[in-house]
Design brief:
Elements (H helix, E strand, L loop, with lengths): L1 E2 L2 E4 L13 H4 L4 H27 L4 H17 L2 E8 L1 E2 L3 E5 L5 H9 L3 E5 L8 H7 L3 E3 L3 H16 L3 E4 L26 E12 L2 E2 L2 H7 L7 H9 L4 E7 L3 E2 L4 H34 L1
Parallel strand pairs: 3-11, 5-8, 5-9, 6-7, 6-8
Antiparallel strand pairs: 1-4, 2-3, 9-10, 9-11, 9-12
Length: 290
């Protein structure tokens, strides 16, 4: 089932006018906000442990779905993402969704939109508390090898047959939010009639200004950066804006390579569209201010 529409979650984030302040000051982080955000995330993760237990006992209960959505929304706001713009139709049943991957916040952002069953690397299962919550939420864990992906396909197919929505970050790693790496073909070993929905995630604003390339380095969870130091940096900004585009779904067909190529092409086009639109809005607001 697909639900159509365009919505913006929360409001705010005005452009403001250009001033003599440097770009560094425009993107200045607030340590108090960051500490409060980390504290809020910590408390919500404890709550997530309780919700995880309830989810394990009553996996199909609509009340559990609502609790998960509230949890994801709370973590999102504590992490500094105060505005989410959603475009396109969201398919929530019997679909294989694929998205670009920027950081762990992608799970929160997408989990708030639909009751996805996420696919995660096997190492996440051993993370303190987070791994336990992920297991109770029904996450499918796989090894990040071609053989590991192939072995995980059995459970993925079974979950889709149960009319659930499965989501994978098909790059197999995180990126900077602008360049999307080719998707692993092995993820697309699906029944020919399965619907595939590409999703684009793009951070467009930081503190009400376009997210510049040097700022994106802090938004992306790349390399060996620890979880909480990265969260501290994200939570230090007053407001982050994210655009999520749900592209039209298509049937998998018989070619894994073709499905992977078509998906990554849609995702890249969506990111490009979001960035161009943001530049247009900023220049338009600037011209009016002048």
């Amino acid at each position: 089932m697909c639900r159509c529409g365009y919505k913006a979650v929360s409001t705010g984030g005005v452009w403001g006018t250009m001033s003599s302040k440097s770009s560094v000051l425009r993107f200045k982080q607030n340590r108090v906000f960051a500490l409060l955000g980390i504290g809020g995330v910590g408390l919500l993760l404890l709550l997530g442990g309780v919700i995880g237990g309830i989810s394990f006992l009553f996996p199909s209960c609509s009340f559990v779905v609502l609790l998960k959505k509230i949890l994801y929304k709370g973590i999102r706001r504590c992490a500094g993402v105060h505005k989410v713009v959603v475009r396109g139709s969201i398919c929530k049943e019997g679909v294989f969704a694929v998205s670009n991957h920027i950081s762990y916040l992608d799970i929160v952002l997408l989990g708030e939109q639909a009751p996805y069953v996420f696919i995660a690397k096997e190492e996440v299962k051993n993370w303190p508390l987070v791994g336990w919550i992920a297991k109770k939420f029904g996450t499918i864990f796989i090894k990040r090898t071609l053989r590991g992906i192939h072995n995980g396909q059995t459970r993925i197919k079974k979950t889709i047959q149960q009319n659930k929505a499965v989501l994978v970050f098909a790059e197999g790693t995180t990126g900077n939010g602008i360049v999307t790496e080719p998707f692993y073909h092995a993820f697309f070993e699906l029944h020919p009639e399965v619907k595939i929905q590409p999703i684009s995630i793009c951070y467009t604003e930081v503190n009400g200004f376009p997210a510049l390339s040097w700022v994106r380095r802090y938004l992306s969870w790349i390399g060996n950066v620890a979880l909480f130091p990265h969260l501290f940096k994200c939570g230090g900004w007053r407001s982050l804006t994210v655009v999520i585009i749900f592209h039209p779904p298509f049937t998998a067909g018989s070619s894994r390579k073709l499905s992977a190529a078509r998906s990554v092409s849609s995702v890249r086009a969506g990111i490009s569209q979001s960035l161009k639109m943001q530049d247009f809005l900023f220049l338009n607001s600037l011209s009016k201010a002048l």
